[in-house]
Description:
The chain is of the alpha+beta class and about 300 residues long.
Amino acid sequence: MSTPLLCPEVSRPPPARQSARHNLLLAAMPVSDYELLRPELDLVPLPLGCALYQAGSTQEYLYFPTSGVVSEFFVTEEGSLTGVALTGSEGVMGTALLMGARTTAGHAEVQIPGDAYRLRLGALELRFEHGGTLRDLALPYIQALITQMSLTAVCNHHHTMVQRLGRLLLLCLDRLPSSELPLTQELIANMLGVRREGVTVAVGVLEAAGLIHHKRGYISVPDRSNLELRGCECYSVIRREYERLLPPGWTGRSTHQWNKLPARTAGYRLPSSRTGAIFSKRCRPAHSDGARAASSSTTG
């Protein structure tokens, strides 16, 4: 595994279509809560290969992607790696901070470039002190993420290389607005934790069946329903859990449809407020980095 790039520290003016509300969790916040949080959000680019955090390193930020795909890996002492989960604009990276930790054994790296809004730990602690819906939205997402990790482990152990590749492509399609995926075979091999030769064979099988089209650096899926029918059950279980646990609007296809959710004006009504009890003072992040550094960036 090559040394990952560190994500750029300098934020930039947000593109017209990449406001913070293009992230599903931020879009689902009531307007009053979102407006309190908005000045604390900094837009940062996510170039291919940049690391949001590394195993054992101290985490300082939550990242709310608005585009692109980030993969969480686990790396062995010998340097072998396997991807365990994908996150796009439906979720948040840095969930260890939400659970009161500062480090994690995982490593998060951008697989498909995009953008994200970044929230400092100090601002997160302040939001937790004053309540609000951020933590209540994040907890069901974490449960969905755990389901994805669990089914990835099951799939890697019990299913064929072709089935595992199909699951990965479907998960990527859920997080991108296009049916053409900018994925090289090397990237796919890293995400699946296999040799590149195995990916080459699996791509050939799916292409011969007419389920995908492959050209250098890209894989397109002309009809994802056929790919779902030929795949294992792992993807469908993951998708059902995301649809059940995430705010309304996530339909397994990242077209930013949640930018028009009623949540923008009325707020997403959580099923229960009891989840807030989990975040007692003992569980909240204990570290504070003091006053937030002034930022001149514009947020959505």
